[in-house]
Write a structure and sequence with these properties.
- By secondary structure, this protein is α/β, with parallel strands linked by helices.
- Helices cover 38% and strands 14% of the residues.
- The strands form two sheets. Strands 1, 2, 3, 6 and 7 form a five-stranded parallel β-sheet that branches. The protein has a two-stranded antiparallel ribbon with strand order 4-5.
- Helix 9 (205-216) links the parallel strand 6 (193-201) and strand 7 (221-229).
Length: 230
């Protein structure tokens, strides 16, 4: 009997013994840890600024900020809005070590349709080694791995956070940009078209700092990918 067949039978038996339960409401899950009702409550980001992913009315394609001062990246794919109940899953995943929530969020992202041409590779936003030791994992990388497999794209780790920075959640937009100035460096070759991936985009300061580092290292097109837009 093949190993794959054994694994499938074991998984099926485990599902019968321990059926999936929704991480939000504890109702039976539909083959995953999220029920269809809670999935339907996720706020999609269908109408958004093409450059920064900010939710917009259907009649607009660019927000006023990107019209006045376009960001250094070329386009954005942000399939969800950072709102209830996605924000509950994200907080548990990012700050409380709940990797099961991260698995559900990654599944949701894989089920979304890319709004941009696919890049040559995906590059997750890195954590500084001190924060990585504290948290134990990089939430952007945990989301990027299954998405890269799903889209059949290489996953690169050529971007480094070269210095420790203050947590962005504690700063306003202007301070966030100053906090991240020269915080990232590139340690390996970069293909022409890459997507920088993060869990949540708020002001875009992290994406901007990463994009400038990648463009300086030889990338010609950088797209900003995030699961949700605040």
């Amino acid at each position: 009997m093949s190993t794959k067949l054994i694994n499938r039978r074991f998984t099926a038996a485990l599902d019968r013994l321990l059926p999936a339960r929704c991480l939000l409401c504890h109702a039976p899950g539909d083959g995953m840890d999220l029920c269809m009702a809670c999935l339907a409550d996720m706020a999609s980001n269908h109408h958004a600024c093409q450059r920064c992913g900010l939710p917009l009315p259907p009649s607009l394609s660019l927000c006023s900020g990107c019209v006045r001062q376009p960001p250094p990246w070329s386009g954005a794919w942000v399939p969800f809005r950072y709102a209830w109940p996605l924000d509950l899953l994200e907080a548990r995943f990012k700050f409380h070590g709940d990797l099961a929530c991260g698995k559900v969020l990654a599944w949701m992202w894989c089920a979304a349709e890319p709004s941009l041409p696919l890049p040559d590779a995906i590059i997750p936003v890195p954590l500084h080694r001190s924060r990585l030791r504290t948290r134990g994992y990089n939430q952007a990388l945990e989301l990027a791995r299954p998405l890269a497999r799903h889209l059949r794209l290489p996953l690169l780790s050529c971007l480094r956070r070269s210095r420790r920075t203050t947590a962005q959640t504690e700063l306003d937009a202007q301070a966030r940009r100053g906090n991240l100035r020269d915080a990232f460096s590139v340690t390996g070759p970069v293909p022409p078209h890459v997507a920088i991936l993060d869990d949540v985009m708020t002001t875009g300061a992290t994406m901007e700092a990463c994009t400038r580092a990648l463009l300086a290292a030889g990338a010609t097109t950088v797209d900003a990918w995030a699961l949700a837009r605040a």
